Every structure is written in structure tokens, then in C-alpha cells.
Amino acid sequence: xxxxxxxxxxxHAPVPGVRGFAVLAGLExxxxxxxxxxxxxxxxxxxxxxxxxxxxxxxxxxxALGYGLMVPWISRFIPRRWxxxxxxxxxxxxxxxxxxxxxxxxxxxxxxxxxxxxxxxxTTNAYIMDYxxxxxxxRSETLRLFYSAVSWAIGPVAGVAMWKxxxxxxxxxxxxxxxxxxxxxxxxxLGNGRLITRAxxxxxxxxxxxxxxxxxxxxxxxxxxxxxxxxxxxxxxxxLPIFCVEAGLGxxxxxxxxxxxxxxLLAAPVMLRWMQRRGLRRAMRQAFAAAAAAFxxxxxxxxxxxxxxxxxxxxxxxxxxxxxxGGLPFLMxxxxxxxxxxxxxxxxxxxxxxILTPGVAWLVLLGARRSRSDQPA
Length: 377
Known about the structure:
mainly alpha; Growth Hormone, Chain: A; 16 helices
């Protein structure tokens, strides 16, 4: 009799589906979108040098890469729902530390937030491959981007405006978003995934599954595609704000360009249909070629700063297209028994691009600084 008065959502856990994961993606985007344009400015303000910013991102990428490869190993001892919750903890601690500020706390805050992104990304991909059918992956990725579009469109401009109004404000709102993300995750009751069995052998070395990854060409190709498009985003998100400040264009132009380009995520369903008409292989070739041409055009910014903004903005449009369907080659090729492990390998694309891009930029800036110092006064 008592069971008749218990609400349905308490008696039966909701079945995780495409829309549930889209809601999670939208909440995470509200957090990351608020801070994406704030971090380069906050770090640059704390360190005062573009070369130091590049070196910091390079070191943070190395740390995040090592941590990401450890997540599957950690997941063998800690249930996946608690690993996801650990990511929420990072999302709370990072902005909280950023409020303290300073040359030590600010870099540590960015690192903790980055570890939260790695943790959430790996566990979410594993959940998606548990609960979303293969033929629904394209719709799932598109809907996740669609639900994230408003946050990515408004967040960058709003975050910088809030930071200029009162520095702690965007970080406080990011913490609220992180708490909301955790609440929705636990409401969905994703648990530890569907294919959870008790381990019958000792947990392998965290790097042991890399051999299986390198024996699967489709996984390698999908990972390389992700590294390339992520490197483009690194240039756009991190170095465009610094370029605008040093070129005397102000700190709002870059965040405005980022918001406008991200508003195109609302057209993700249209982009998916465009890809389906051409086929995945052909669509990715065309989008990568167009993005590369636009980024080459941005190189003219050395003589005309406005061309750098225009070229990177045009390139970002094609990066958005690649975001809408560029992850499909990897997701469609993963074996069910390797979901968590291969999700960790795939997530390393963020860290590898976060090592390569700032590393190259740091060397370029270092060389430019030395060439200026060698010139006669």
C-alpha cells in the first residue's frame, strides 16, 4: 500500500538516454563557457607575460595527460559514479581557489578545473557508450552540442564582463553550475554503467591498454582528428585574447568573437544533416581543409591585426562543424569491453594538444624575445 504513494521517479530510476546526457552537457558547458575566456586573462594578469602563460599551459597539459591515463586504473578501485563525483569536486575546488587569486593559487585553480574536465569527459564517454546505441551516437553528439550552444555563446562574453565588474563573480557562478551538474548526475542514477563485473584479475598497469589502442587504426585516426581540431581551439581560445590585449584591441573583442562563433552550435542538427548527405569521411576532409585555410589567413595578423581575428573566427566556424561530428569515428570504433580504457586514451587529445600548442607557442615567443634582445638599441 505504501508503494502506491511513492513517486514514480523515486521507485524506478529514470532510464538514461540521449536527452539526459544532453542536459549534463549543457550544465557543464555553462561552467566551462563562463570561464573559457576568463582563464587566459586571469593567468596573463597573474603572470604578466605571454611566454609564462604558454609555459604554464604546457606544464598543466603534461599533468592532465598523466592523470587522464590513470583514470581507468582509478576506476577499478573506485566506482565510476564516485570518479564522476571527483570531477565535480575538482570543478568546485578550481574556481574556489581562483577567487583567492595570486601567482600561485590562480595557476593551481586552472589546473584543478582542467582535471575536472578530464575526469568528466572520460566518465561521460564511458556512460554514453554504455547507454546509447551505436546508431544513436550521431544524434546524441548533436543534441549535446545543441544543449550547450547557449552557454558557449553567452558564457565567454558574460564571463569577462562579470570578471571586470567583480573578479570573483564568474567563479562563484561556475561553482553553482558545478553543484547543479552533480545534482542532475545523481538524479539520473547512472551508477557504474551497465557492463560492470567484479574484477577477476589484478588491475593492469595504467599504460597497458595503450598497446591495444595502437593496434586499432580507426581509434588512432579518430584520436588524431580530435588532436588537430583541439589544437585549433587552443590557438583561438588562449592566444587570441592575449593577442588582442598586446595589439591594443582590448580584452572584449576575443570573447565576443568566441561567443558569436559558438552560437553556431545551435545549427548542430543542420551540420549533422550536411555531414550525412556527404558521408562522414568527405565531410571531415572538407571541414579540415577549410579550417586550415582560414588559420593560414590569420597569419597575416602580423601585418594587420584585424586579419588575425577574421581568420581565426572563420576557422572557428569549421571547428564547430568538426565538433558536431568529428568524434564519431572514435565512438563508433570502440569495443564494448574497452569503453573506460579507450575513453581515457581518447580524452588525452585535450592534453596532447594542450602540450603541443602552448609548447610551440612558448618556443616561438622565446625566440622572438631573444631576437629583440639581440637587436642593437
